[in-house]
Design brief:
Elements: H1 2-52
Amino acid sequence: MLRTFYEILLMTLYWAAISVSELALMSIRRARDRRIVSMIVSYRVCDHFRNSGHSIPVSAEA
């Protein structure tokens, strides 16, 4: 009886750890995808300004 309780507890902890790690991987992938999209958008904006002959706006602090 006690052995099966510990086995069930161990399996539950095992599956919980797998679920948490999968959620962490999904959030890391989502953050990476967001960063890639923002890099593409900023490149397109800079490319647009370069092709249109305007100077690229730069903040005063930079």
